[in-house]
């Protein structure tokens, strides 16, 4: 089934463009596409601009070194880079053995709690992984899952909107969840 999903993804034209992270131009392209977002992520976790810049630099250095291991069929470049960044941030927090910088009062409670415990925002990483996995399943299954589970809409309302019986919607949910589990397993997501 995994091969079928990969073939479908390629045939639909949704595969990410090839980026050769072993070349300077490939790293430059990846940085232009994802560098600012990685920097904001690192800054939110570390609370220090210089440390965040260093973390992003280390992320791209590790991506360059491991460029031959990047597989666009398993995860998008964005997801792969954020996984590397997460590891870099965890290493930095462990290495420094320091307490995170106090968060200014205008920051929201979630950021304050996250920095206080010194961890990386796992919920953001999970949402990116789920978003990537949802793009790899069929349209009917994706709509059923997003509308009922993620948006919390009643089955009857979604079924009426899709002009299908509620039983069909339930079937799409069942098979959609199975497909999502397979895709997430292929992406290496465990839990």
CATH topology of the largest domain: Rna Polymerase Sigma Factor, Chain: A
Determine the number of helices (DSSP H or I, runs of at least 4 residues): 9
CATH top level label of the largest domain: Mainly Alpha
The end-to-end distance, rounded to whole angstroms, is: 20 Å
Mean pLDDT: 77
- C-alpha Rg (nearest Å): 19 Å
One letter per element, helices H and strands E, the order comes to: HHHHHHHHH
What's the domain count? 2
**Sheet with most strands:** none
Low-confidence stretches: 1-16, 99-103, 111-118
Structural class: mainly alpha
Q: In CATH terms, what is the architecture of the largest domain?
A: Orthogonal Bundle
CATH homology group of the largest domain: RNA polymerase sigma factor, region 2, helix turn helix motif
Rough shape?
elongated
**Strand tally, please?**
0
Q: Which percent bin holds the helix content?
A: 55-70%
Q: In percent terms, what proportion of residues is strand?
A: under 5%
Keywords: DNA-binding, Sigma factor, Transcription, Transcription regulation
Biased composition (Basic residues): 1-10
Family: Belongs to the sigma-70 factor family. ECF subfamily.
Pfam family, one: Sigma70_r4
Explain the layout of strands and helices.
Layout: H1 2-11, H2 24-46, H3 49-65, H4 77-96, H5 109-117, H6 122-134, H7 139-150, H8 155-162, H9 166-186
Quick tags:
mainly alpha, Rna Polymerase Sigma Factor, Chain: A, 70% helix, RNA_pol_sigma70_r4, disordered N terminus, single chain, 191 residues, DNA-binding, 0% strand, sigma factor, RNA_pol_sigma-70-like, 9 helices
């Amino acid at each position: 089934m995994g091969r079928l999903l990969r073939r479908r993804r390629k045939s639909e034209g949704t595969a990410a463009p090839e980026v050769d992270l072993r070349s300077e131009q490939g790293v430059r392209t990846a940085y232009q596409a994802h560098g600012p977002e990685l920097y904001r992520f690192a800054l939110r976790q570390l609370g220090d601009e210089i440390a965040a810049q260093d973390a992003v630099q280390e992320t791209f250095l590790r991506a360059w070194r491991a460029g031959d291991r990047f597989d666009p069929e398993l995860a998008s470049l964005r997801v792969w880079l954020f996984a590397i960044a997460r590891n870099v941030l965890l290493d930095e927090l462990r290495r420094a053995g320091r307490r995170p910088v106090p968060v200014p009062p205008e920051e929201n409670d979630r950021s304050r709690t996250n920095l206080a415990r010194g961890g990386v925002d796992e919920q953001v990483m999970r949402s990116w992984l789920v978003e990537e996995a949802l793009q790899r399943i069929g349209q009917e299954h994706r709509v059923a899952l997003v509308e009922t589970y993620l948006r919390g809409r009643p089955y009857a309302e979604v079924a009426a909107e899709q002009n299908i019986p509620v039983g069909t919607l339930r079937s799409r949910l069942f098979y959609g969840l199975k497909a999502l589990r397979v895709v997430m397993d292929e992406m290496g997501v465990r839990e």
